[in-house]
Design a protein that fits this description.
The protein is α+β, with helices and mostly antiparallel strands. It contains 4 helices and 5 strands.
């Protein structure tokens, strides 16, 4: 069954953040939904997830921009908002 994570959780070998999509067997999916760690994927599932995650394309573009501006690789744990602020800081510093 396709699910969307509602909270930070580790499922299988993946670390998921709210809004990430993943698949689970029906039995496990029912449990994850019951404890409010996930919601069924489908129409409007992103609205239920609690927060809209940045698209992967946007995050990749921001990481590339940060590397161009600073000359360093960005930390993979930074979200889009943090990357934007770091890019502004680097531009101001130069």
């Amino acid at each position: 069954m396709k699910l969307i994570a509602n909270r930070h959780l580790t499922y299988g070998t993946r670390r998921l953040i709210p809004g990430d999509a993943f698949e689970a067997p029906d039995r496990e999916a029912r449990v994850l939904i019951a404890v409010n760690k996930a919601a069924p994927a489908g129409a409007g599932a992103q609205k239920r997830s609690g927060r809209a995650s940045a698209p992967a394309d946007d995050l990749a573009a921001l990481r590339k921009k940060y590397q161009e501006v600073s000359g360093k690789r960005p930390f993979n744990g930074w979200d889009a908002e943090t990357l934007r602020s770091k890019i502004v800081e680097e531009k101001d510093a130069n």
